[in-house]
Amino acid sequence: MTRIAYREGFKYQLAETYRVQVGIRPAHDIITEYVLLGPTGMLTIMRGYAWDGPSGPAMDTKTAMRGSLVHDALYQLIRLGFLSDADRELADLEYRQICKEDGMWNLRAQYHFAALHLFGGTASLLEAEPEVLYAPH
Q1: 80 Ramachandran zone, left/alpha/beta (phi>0; psi -120 to 50)
Q2: Which structural domain range is residue 25 located in?
């Protein structure tokens, strides 16, 4: 009998590769299996990337989906040590800006940003990276 390896905690999976310009510009290319970030700030999130959508009391609305995708990818790069904790506020600002671009009311976008800024720190720690689980054990 063979086992499977999986991670839990995800609700969404990207159906097409997505590229967006962000304000975080690393000194060198960052390349992971699903997320790439270049020195120009071009963020590429590969098809198949899984994320959990907006966190906390935030609702999974269309105005929050793209922002949550980009935010989760950037936080993952922080957790894995490719970006510093100092980049966390820039990632939070990217979330707010993208949500506003996608039609989220300014007050709601500001509320989400404040919640991320105050409570999002633990999501940027390595311990928050979903562990690999196995079945059967």
Answers
A1: alpha
A2: 8-128
Residue 78 lies in a domain: yes
- Residues 40-97 have pLDDT tens digits of 999 999 999 999 888 766 677 898 899 999 999 999 999 899 999 889 889 999 999 9
**Dihedral angle computed from the Cα positions of residues 49, 91, 82 and 129, in that order, rounded to the nearest 10 degrees:** -50
First-to-last C-alpha distance (Å) of the chain? 11
* Rounded-to-integer distance, Cα 113 and Cα 89, Å: 9
* Residue 136 in domain: no
135 occurs within a structural domain: no
pTM score of the predicted model: 0.85
**pLDDT tens-digit map of 85-116:** 889 889 999 999 999 999 989 888 888 788 77
Spatial contact of 121 and 78, defined as CB atoms under 8 Å apart: no
Helix (H, G, I), strand (E, B) or coil at 89: helix
In a domain, 2, yes or no: no
